[in-house]
Write a structure and sequence with these properties.
It is built from four helices and two strands; from the N terminus they run ββαααα. By secondary structure, the chain is mainly alpha-helical.
Length: 99
Amino acid sequence: MRNRSHIQRGSGVYACRTCQHNTRDTGDNGDVRLCPACYTLAGEDNSLSDNGKLYDADSARNEFYALMEQTSLVRAKQLFPRVWSALIQAPTTTTGSAA
């Protein structure tokens, strides 16, 4: 389940600068006018530029799926190609213990 910040009271709807999805300010994304998915993925793209690796692959994967639901797989790949490439190479974590 995705952990979302709450919509800020009195915030209007705006189009995300990246994917054009209509969204609202959730407290951390309003200043840059990004939807929560693009905000997280832009941070991951920045981490790839600065450190050569994803900051949180599981979070990036969840937000990439959310962006795919808002747009399409093709569009999500176009918007964040480096994150997509890193996600393909990143191992997935599993919950539970190995027997």
